[in-house]
Known about the structure:
Layout: H1 3-18, H2 21-33, H3 49-56, E1 59-64, H4 70-74, E2 80-87, H5 90-102, E3 109-113, E4 125-131, H6 142-150, E5 153-164, E6 166-167, E7 170-171, H7 173-185, E8 187-194, E9 199-205
Parallel strand pairs: 1-2, 1-4, 2-3, 4-5
Antiparallel strand pairs: 5-9, 6-7, 8-9
Amino acid sequence: xxxxxxxxxxxxxxxxxxxxxxxxxxxxxxxxxxxxxxxxxxxxxxxxxxxxxxxxxxxxxxxxxxxxxxxxxxxxxxxxxxxxxxxxxxxxxxxxxxxxxxxxxxxxxxxxxxxxxxxxxxxxxxxxxxxxxxxxxxxxxxxxxxxxxxxxxxxxxxxxxxxxxxxxxxxxxxxxxxxxxxxxxxxxxxxxxxxxxxxxxxxxxxxxxx
Length: 210
Ligand SMILES: C[S@@+](CC[C@H](N)C(=O)[O-])C[C@H]1O[C@@H](n2cnc3c(N)ncnc32)[C@H](O)[C@@H]1O
């Protein structure tokens, strides 16, 4: 990769985490409309699903950075009653809504355009999911964002985070730092590492008061 291209890639990555919402929306819409993310359209069998099934038990799920609707359409239909997906890209949401109609799930899947750094849920959920989307939370804000969303967990509800912490046998610094923050600040119920994809899945909730 030449220097100019590297600089552009770095700037794009920086803006996706730290930029204003309208710029983030532009960048993500361009990528989804251009087909850059078509490769994630089929994630059946992903390592996150057994965790979601275990904790959902037929309940409700908030999917922050839901993308083109994989979770909403690949979860077993009987595993959940109600799903809300939030994403900053209208192009991703268009695809998610289309797939939902094709799968006859329009009565239980709802999609909302929004920036998850500021989005305010309208109800509580059994599971709040960040699936391959936590990268776009500034590292210094991981705890405060999760603390804010904690209020929207039902009693006994959990966060599930799926994040790629490794690649080709090497640890990725920023995602690993996010995992370390979560392990330090929250009560972790499950941690699983998938050697094939390099993904870490964490299931956790707020620490009980001392
Ligand atoms: C790599 S994709 C993952 C999509 C989906 N969660 C999955 O695993 O199939 C990351 C998604 O996060 C969304 N996203 C990134 N930053 C966001 C933000 N600040 N608010 C809402 N969505 C965001 C992107 O538009 C994109 O759809």
